[in-house]
Amino acid sequence: MMRWIKKKLLNLIIKYIFDYWKGGKIMFEKFRGALAGSKTYLVSVGAIIAALIAYASNQIEVAEMIRLIIEAILAITIRAGIAKKK
Question: Domain range spanning residue 71?
Fold first, then answer.
């Protein structure tokens, strides 16, 4: 399964590089369009998952985990507020 994922990822990267060199930039624009407006949410969800994993592996204390989760939620809230204001 991992070989298949690596192969698909490598093919995607090679296709992107060749497309970019040709001047089309098609894949880059599709990728950028797919991420439009959701980058902050993805990073915040990643931060929450990382905090939970760090707590589960006893690398941080409960208070630190809660602080990290609250900061990630605040980032999501601020992003939503900015998006609404436009």
Answer: 37-86
